[in-house]
Amino acid sequence: MISSLSNLFSKNKNGIGIEITPAKINIAEISKEKQNYKLVNHLSVEVPEGLFEEGKIIDVASIAEIIQDTLVKNRIKAKTVTTALPMREAIIRIIPVPAELNEEELKDMVVNHEAPLYLPYPREEVDLDYQKLGYFVDEDGIEKVQVLLVATRKEITDSYLDVFEQSNLEINVLEISSFAMIRTIREQLRQFNSEEAVVLVDIEFDSTEIAIIVDGVPQFSRNLPIGAYQMQSALSQAMNLPPSRDIQQLQEMTIINVSSDEISTGVASINPGMAALLKVLAELVDELRRSINFYLNQRGDLEITQLLLAGPGGGIGQIDEFFTQRIGIPAIQIDPIASLSLKVEKDIPSVQRPGLGVVLGLGMREA
User: Fold this and answer.
1) Rounded CA gap, 140 and 149, in Å?
2) What is the pTM of this model?
């Protein structure tokens, strides 16, 4: 039986999105005025250390208390919200099935026959949902339909459900973070055709989520254990500063583009902090290149045309130039405010904008 993710693709009339991360809880309230969207409220509250472990919530009560207190203090009256699970906690697959199946047959085929083939754990431990994407004719001349399958472990979805239940909030839609991000940049994605792929590089607090997107749908995803925190830690250690979860110093940096040889040999005349940061970024780039090459080996008919940099680490000065130079693919920092033509009462600095992709996508789901 499809359970907690059953509303993944359903409609939502609420304009409040809440994103929970190991570093911060982000809240966005969005209203729609005729054809335009307006950011009514945008809040970001730090999450104390110890409430997450390896990216998973381990203190539900404390997270719930932070959410509830934040809403009350800012006089946000909410009963229902939209939230998201991290992409790294999801299994996302595109499955071809016969086009002649009716809805009941399709459900049985996907849930009971196809899904178990892609799950690394028992079916009873999983929540899943699916959606038909489009029809095509395979190499044997048989008409089929592509189905987007999304699955997460029940223990993960249950932890999020518990958080909002203890916050006295009802989840209208529980989706995957990459889907929310795609919603904010869908106008950018429309400029690419079905033979072009873009790579979403979401540099979060403690990891980087990679999604290769074709026709607005994630075709491949991978999680890398390198995020803004690892960059900040390398920076602090090199400069003999105390460890900190605050990445503001990192976000104020401007990347200096030097060659790989200059970094490894220490020839470049850069300070120790920048050298340490560049080494972490070089490692991230190497892993990204491996992921792209792996995907292209499976799909040689596609061309990677652009890298889209997102997340709190995606706004670092000139990081787009660094990725462009190292990967050889044009990279840009996403700007959800501009992409959505979102009206804001108070300007949001450009360095912070790439980190708003998920929460804005949640807030505007049915604003």
Assistant:
1) 24
2) 0.90
